[in-house]
Amino acid sequence: MTEPGAMAPDFTLPRDGGEEVTLSALRPKAVVLYFYPRDDTPGCTKEAIGFTEAAAEFEAAGAVVLGVSKDTVAKHEKFRDKHDLGVALLSDAEGTVCEDYGTWVEKNMYGRKSMGIERATFLIAGDGTISRIWRKVKVAGHVEDVLEAVRAL
């Protein structure tokens, strides 16, 4: 499991638009890495729109925002276009990054257990260490909390 103070597991993933993103190549910028269950669901849409609306503030504070789910790049592009999103959406189709960050978990919905992505956010400092972790994120107020933490780095 990842924890504050540890080095963030490095990765290279495809993103919407056809490019690849390598976490370590973003240094010395801070990175807000948020994991979300699925494109175009109510909570995930609100979260992505919230990060998009605050994108300029994150950039001014020296941070890059990256969203990660197991959806395909094509699905990410439809989601991005439908909601005019301005944050990079990375496709972890194999789930290896979700596993590395401990966000692929057993969920219990209405008594039915299944595996899925836990909504979680990791703030990674410019040196590649994990500065802060939010698990079981509630969307309301989350973007503001993360922005405050980025500014405090």
From TrEMBL:
Q: Which InterPro entries match?
A: AhpC/TSA, Peroxiredoxin_AhpC-typ, Peroxiredoxin_BCP/PrxQ, Thioredoxin-like_sf, Thioredoxin_domain
Could you confirm whether the keyword Disulfide bond appears in this record?
yes
Q: Where on the tree of life does the source sit, at the highest rank?
A: Bacteria
**Which keywords does the record carry?**
Antioxidant, Disulfide bond, Oxidoreductase, Peroxidase, Redox-active center
Subunit structure, interactors included = Monomer.
**What is the purpose of this protein?**
Thiol-specific peroxidase that catalyzes the reduction of hydrogen peroxide and organic hydroperoxides to water and alcohols, respectively. Plays a role in cell protection against oxidative stress by detoxifying peroxides and as sensor of hydrogen peroxide-mediated signaling events.
Q: What is this protein called?
A: thioredoxin-dependent peroxiredoxin
Q: Which organism is it from?
A: Harenicola maris
